[in-house]
């Protein structure tokens, strides 16, 4: 029997609106020159991406739910929906969310989906709504839960609860919390690090509700300097279609320009900053023998033109156009 669980996202929409208005008003009356704050076009883009994701998610859910139900019917295991099993399912879902989130940062074709959420140079509660339109890459990470007997509806409830929790961590108006909370939970301080583009902050703090997974698996970084938000190469557009697809387009360009099947695979399945190893001798200067002067034998020195600067054997390949 399908579990009867509430739609936590739907119930949370009034709170989303209220908290966003409060944050906007706080910047109006208590501005912070160092904070990223709000930009009208940026906030509108985030809202558009969020609304668009709702529609596209309905499309993706049809085949995904079919796969989940098929696996659920095949497994002999069943996890009952009780108050204490729901807590365990939330814990397990958060664990698999960590690995899904981490995978979407270190595999470029997955990053092409998740980069949407990092494409804003602002960091406020509307940034939480900037969601991708191609989230069909997420579902494989949760198959182990379905195979263990978690009903797809129960998984959907846990995913929604995780998403709702993460709304409030997208803000600069909350500083660091008391140490016990900072040690266990994902907080605004930890998530500011995750959205930063500085080298020391890149690919850190993947946790959804809990930050303990990052501490356990070596991906944690504390907030020490003020973050700079966005990508290492920002896309400078508010066009929702380009925001949703720009990294897929960059992958296609890099694949077309690749010189081998190995490089093509690397451009798709390796990290966003991956570069192929240079060919042996590529970029090395062609040695030019020094001219022998006739003056050594006592004759007059010949008049000769200056030799041109040596060219490299192979021209350097253009840098890929991916964003990070």
Please tell me about this protein's structure.
- With about 325 residues, this protein is an all-alpha fold.
- The chain has eleven helices and no strands.
- Helix 3 packs across helix 6 (about 150-165) and helix 10 (about 240-255) packs antiparallel against helix 11 (about 260-270).
- The two termini are about 45 Å apart.
Task: Label this structure with key terms.
single chain, 324 residues, mainly alpha
Listing every helix as H and every strand as E from the N terminus to the C terminus, the arrangement reads HHHHHHHHHHH
| Helical percentage | 40-55%
Report the portion of residues in β strands: under 5%
Instruction: Write down the oligomeric state.
Output: single chain
**What's the Cα radius of gyration?**
26 Å
Summarize the structure.
The protein is mostly helical and 324 residues long. The chain has helices at 8-29, 40-74, 83-106, 108-114, 143-147, 152-167, 179-184, 188-194, 212-217, 240-257, 261-269. α3 (83-106) packs across α4 and α3 packs across α6.
Question: Helices, strands, pairings?
Answer:
Blueprint: H1 8-29, H2 40-74, H3 83-106, H4 108-114, H5 143-147, H6 152-167, H7 179-184, H8 188-194, H9 212-217, H10 240-257, H11 261-269
């Amino acid at each position: 029997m399908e579990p009867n669980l509430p739609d936590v996202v739907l119930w949370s929409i009034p709170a989303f609106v209220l908290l966003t208005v409060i944050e906007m008003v706080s910047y109006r009356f208590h501005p912070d020159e160092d904070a990223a704050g709000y930009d009208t076009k940026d906030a509108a883009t985030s809202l558009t991406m969020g609304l668009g994701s709702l529609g596209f998610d309905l499309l993706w859910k049809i085949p995904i739910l079919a796969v989940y139900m098929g696996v659920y019917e095949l497994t002999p295991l069943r996890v009952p929906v009780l108050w204490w099993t729901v807590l365990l399912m939330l814990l397990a879902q958060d664990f698999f969310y960590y690995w899904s989130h981490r995978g979407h940062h270190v595999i470029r074709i997955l990053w092409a989906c998740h980069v949407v959420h990092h494409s804003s140079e602002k960091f406020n509660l509307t940034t939480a709504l900037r969601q991708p339109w191609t989230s069909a890459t997420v579902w494989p990470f949760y198959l182990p839960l379905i195979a263990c007997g978690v009903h797809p509806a129960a998984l959907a409830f846990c995913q929604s609860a995780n998403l709702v929790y993460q709304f409030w961590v997208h803000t600069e108006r909350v500083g660091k919390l008391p140490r016990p909370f900072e040690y266990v939970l994902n907080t605004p301080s930890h998530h500011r690090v995750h959205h930063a583009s500085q080298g020391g902050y890149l690919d850190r703090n993947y946790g959804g509700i809990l930050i303990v997974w990052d501490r356990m698996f070596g991906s944690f970084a504390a907030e020490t300097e003020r973050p700079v938000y966005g990508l290492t190469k920002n896309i400078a557009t508010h066009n929702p279609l380009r925001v949703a697809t720009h990294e897929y387009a960059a992958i296609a360009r890099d694949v077309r320009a690749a010189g081998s099947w190995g490089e093509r695979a690397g451009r798709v399945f390796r990290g966003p900053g991956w570069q192929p190893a240079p060919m042996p001798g590529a970029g090395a200067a062609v040695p030019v023998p020094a001219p022998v002067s006739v003056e050594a034998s006592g004759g007059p020195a010949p008049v000769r033109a200056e030799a041109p600067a040596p060219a490299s054997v192979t021209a350097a390949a253009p840098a890929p156009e991916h964003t990070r």
